[in-house]
Amino acid sequence: METTTAVSIPRRVTTCGPFSSVSSISSLKRAFASCNCHLVINHSWNAIVWLVRWLVKFRDGEQFKNSGTSIYQSGYPFTVFTGASFAGGGDYNADGDNYDFPNVSSYHQATSRSAYVTGIFTAGQFTAPTPGTNGNEKSNQFRNAPFVQSNVTLYKDTRLTERLNLQFRFEFYNLFNHPNFQNIQGDLSAGNFGVATAETLPRFWQIGAKITF
């Protein structure tokens, strides 16, 4: 069995939105945050094993084999913002950028499956700051949903002749049909704020065969 763990990517100073120009020590501290590609955990397991012989019995050299990969990856960070114009209740500092951070009372977020569909934030968690200023929110303090998936392949080699070999394969992707939500809407002005806007493929499988000589 082979196990792999990725090393987390270092933090950096955010250089977009309200922090595109850092003008003070306090704003520098708020801009120092996880990169957009930062992962807390990125772990995978790979295994190639023989199936139990009594489960599937064939002639020597013709039994099914099993290969598989399981992955657990924490969600990518994101920042809550408002893309509304000043007239629409956004652009808090009135700089015409329409990408501003609100005040935040808590960095807590729900992580249940239902929350990714109905909304991961609570009412009143984000409020507008004093006009002419940006809010107190720090960059990239929230996380998208984690990615969890197991893929398994069953394959069998059959020697047809001395030089000719047939391999028959069953390939299963997302074997346990785990829902993997993506891209939580972070724009306060959007109607689907706080809700996942995409999902990876559900479980599917395919059959294949190849001849080698």
What does this structure look like?
With 213 residues, this protein is mainly beta. It has one domain (2-212). The chain is built from two helices and 14 strands. Strands 1-4-5-10-11-14 form a six-stranded antiparallel sheet, with no helix packed on it. It has a two-stranded antiparallel sheet with strand order 2-3. A two-stranded antiparallel ribbon has the order 6-9. It is elongated. Residues 5-17, 21-25 and 48-56 have low confidence and may be disordered.
Give keywords.
six-stranded antiparallel β-sheet, 213 residues, elongated, mainly beta, 2 helices
Helix- and strand-based class? mainly beta
- Ranges where pLDDT stays below 50 over 5 or more residues in a row are 5-17, 21-25, 48-56
Helix count, per DSSP?
A: 2
Order of helices and strands: EEHEEEEEHEEEEEEE
Helical coverage, percent range: under 10%
User: Largest sheet at a glance?
Assistant: 6 strands, antiparallel
Computed over alpha carbons, the radius of gyration is: 25 Å
Total domains: 1
Counted beta strands:
14
Shape: elongated
SS strand fraction: 25-35%
Strand order of the largest sheet: 1-4-5-10-11-14
Q: Whole-Å distance between the termini?
A: 29 Å
Task: Please tell me the overall pLDDT.
Answer: 81
